[in-house]
Design brief:
With about 240 residues, this protein is α+β, with helices and mostly antiparallel strands. The protein has six helices and ten strands.
């Protein structure tokens, strides 16, 4: 039986190397984020953590310090660059524990908000980020990182939505209800399982990307913004 999970804040070069190691396993890539970048960021107020199952690292997160995203220039934003759980421990709620730990650390260290990006085609991530965690979508970006070459995203366009999680303005993280579309709203669908499509039907996966991108860009160009996610895992956008 595994020992209880524990989350350890990163401080040292050894911790940074562990975070880099976990990311490489999760994303099947070599040096997704270099330990040197993590060390430099930690020394300048960034957040890093490792989740341990006994003496085995099974998850990690890394977030950098960003400028204010509000009208208050003194407010800091924490941008969560990456958070991942190794496959052997997926589906056990570790991701939620990790994000809650990050939120609490951000609150204790005076950050007003936390932001991160995710692929809008990945339905489970949309649900986790927008409904379970209660983060709100603030923008959509076409090919945010350029073309990626890791084991999950190789050959894919890196379209992303950016979400913002309130910290100082919230007493605690609050999950959100699904929304119901109203007359005049734009509804943008997600595929059942884009990861499987990318492996088994790349052409259809690419069509999903093209359709979703066109829908987001047209709606946002016409003054719509994402209000939430509906019960069918589709984005609901309202004007204004």
């Amino acid at each position: 039986m595994s020992n209880p999970l524990r989350i350890q804040l990163a401080h040292s070069p050894a911790d940074a190397a562990l975070i880099s190691q976990v990311f490489d396993e999760v994303w099947s890539v070599k040096t997704m984020v270099s330990p040197e970048i993590i060390v430099a960021s930690l020394h300048n107020g960034a957040y890093g953590s490792v989740v341990w199952d006994g003496d085995v690292p099974v998850a990690a997160a890394f977030a950098i310090v960003g400028k204010s995203l509000t009208k208050q220039p003194s407010e800091l934003n924490l941008h969560s660059h990456a958070a991942g759980v190794v496959q052997s421990h997926a589906g056990q709620g570790i991701g939620t524990q990790l994000k809650m730990h990050q939120w609490q650390w951000a609150r204790e260290n005076g950050f007003a908000t936390i932001t991160w990006s995710f692929d809008p085609l990945v339905r489970r991530n949309a649900w986790f980020n927008m409904v379970k965690l209660g983060a709100s979508v603030t923008n959509y970006y076409q090919n945010f990182y350029g073309e990626l070459d890791d084991g999950i995203n190789a050959g894919e366009q890196s379209d992303r939505v950016l979400v913002q999680w309130q910290v100082l303005a919230a007493g605690e993280p609050q999950s959100l209800e699904v929304v119901t579309e109203q007359v005049g709203d734009v509804v943008i669908a997600t595929p059942d399982d884009i990861e499987s499509l990318r492996k088994n039907n790349k052409a259809e996966a690419q069509m999903w990307r093209a359709r979703q991108r066109a829908a987001f860009e047209e709606a946002i160009g016409n003054g719509f913004s994402v209000r939430g996610l509906n019960a069918e895992y589709s984005y609901v956008l309202s004007r204004g």
